[in-house]
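Please check this today:
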Amino acid sequence: MSEQDPSTQITESVEELWGIPLQPAGCRKCGQAHLVDASRLGQVCPNCASGKLEAQPARLRAEPPELLVPYRKTQAEFRLVLENFTRPVWLAVDDFTIEKLLQRAMPVYWPMWLMDSNVFGAWQAEVGFDYRVKSSQESYIGNGWQTREVIETRQRWEPRAGQIARHYDNIHVPALTDHARLVGLVGEYQLNQAVPYDTAKLGKSILRIPDLLPESAWPQAQANLDRAAAAECQKAAAVKYIRNFSVKADYQKQHWTQLLLPMLVSYYTDDDGKAHPILINGQSGVVGGARLASQRKGWKWAGITAGIAALVLMISLLLLVAGAFIPPLLAVGGVGAFIAIVLVFAAIVPAVWPWWWNRKTEK
């Protein structure tokens, strides 16, 4: 890594750097840092939903973000995706409702690095070409052998080498250690829809601070630069395939900025009071997070069903006894006993279902 600019510095307000009144704040529970409006201090941490945001100094780079992907979903659309997300959960915990999730929703922008760099060096690879091979295949059909022509497409590989001297703009690199987890929850973003950074678009959004500084993100940046160089060398060689690409290069005049990605963050609490974040992609509307059923509610409905079964069984037994004197009551008592047995088995369902659902959801 030849260069990087500019260096990080400790600051207590982004107004000192970016000209907007945002306060660095951290969470003691998860250790993540954010930039927030001062009014959000003391509120729930958008990362873990367990701790509170407290003012603290933070390591920041002086340059403001370069691009951001704007929110594309309306409030009505967010409600609709949450309806689809919550609907499959039978016996959901009481706190897992659309209204509470929307009420607690926090707009959050999370970062990726954008890295510009010159690449000067030598490369080598194997390049592949398609070619067609004609052969014949014989098969016995009816009363004799028949021959048919077969044409196969194969690849021919040849070594290539050359020099590269290129400049690459906006190579995307993760800026968070949990980047892969977030993408796994809310899906990918269409980064070609990014627009120039504008403080007016932020509103009251929370900005998550990168926890992967350029020094730590450089190996991934270098790998992405090499992939971009491989694609360009493949295009320059006018070949369909390339493999075993390697480059020995100097990476010069690097410049790092941020790209901000939109997300809505909400949360709910389970039977034990533990908070569970729910994340919504602000561009596509994809929702991610654990959808837990209430084991407590399951036991409650199992108990009610079992109680009804016991009552029906007791009445049925009384009718069976009375049937010794009034024969028509024997049939009624028998039907009642059957219903009681069905209810006993039905009581097992709400008792077991939350455990099965939660086990499946948390895998």
